[in-house]
């Protein structure tokens, strides 16, 4: 393998390879071949790839909207917009297949990370909604109980008032008839 590029490019290429190997260790064991193929084939939806830019060496990405030569991320130097954030292998390197694998694994790891973050945010939102719902239900229960108590107090007061007035009326009636009640 011949490296004729600057040392910075070589360093970034090595960093990409390390990242890809990390992604491979962490994610490949949990994915089936079908999932892996699907994730890699949908790895980039940028306008550049949709317009057929990229994949010139792979022969499959040029007009396929981001397909690429058999791998879905492009082959050789033509992996479309993925190249905008991942360095190419140093010029003169013949290891383009390794680079494509790195691109694929890197994008796949990004997608897995995003999916995991989405799950975390979604579960947090659901938890917050449950807490809010629980608080509302608790408040509703409290209001219902308070209303019930208040109404029962009113009812008791009304009964007492009715009883007192009827008692008063009976006392008046008896006094007119010459019968007095203590």
From TrEMBL:
The Polar residues compositionally biased stretches are 40-49, 163-182
Q: Where is the composition biased (Gly residues)?
A: 52-79
Region described as Disordered: spans on this chain: 40-95, 157-182
Q: What is this protein called?
A: Uncharacterized protein
Organism, scientific name: Vespula pensylvanica
């Amino acid at each position: 393998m011949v490296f004729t590029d600057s040392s910075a490019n070589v360093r970034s290429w090595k960093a990409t390879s390390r990242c890809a190997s990390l992604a491979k260790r962490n994610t490949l064991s949990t994915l089936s071949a079908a999932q892996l193929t699907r994730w890699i084939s949908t790895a980039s939806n940028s306008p550049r790839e949709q317009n057929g830019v990229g994949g010139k060496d792979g022969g499959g990405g040029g007009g396929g909207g981001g397909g690429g030569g058999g791998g879905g991320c492009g082959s050789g130097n033509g992996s479309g917009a993925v190249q905008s954030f991942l360095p190419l292998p140093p010029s003169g390197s013949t290891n383009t297949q390794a680079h494509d694998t790195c691109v694929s694994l890197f994008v796949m790891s990004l997608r897995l990370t995003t999916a995991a973050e989405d799950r975390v945010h979604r579960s947090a939102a659901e938890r917050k909604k449950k807490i809010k719902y629980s608080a509302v239900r608790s408040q509703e229960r409290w209001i219902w109980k308070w209303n019930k108590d208040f109404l029962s107090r009113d009812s008791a007061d009304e009964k007492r008032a009715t009883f007192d007035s009827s008692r008063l009326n009976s006392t008046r009636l008896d006094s007119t008839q010459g019968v007095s009640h203590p």
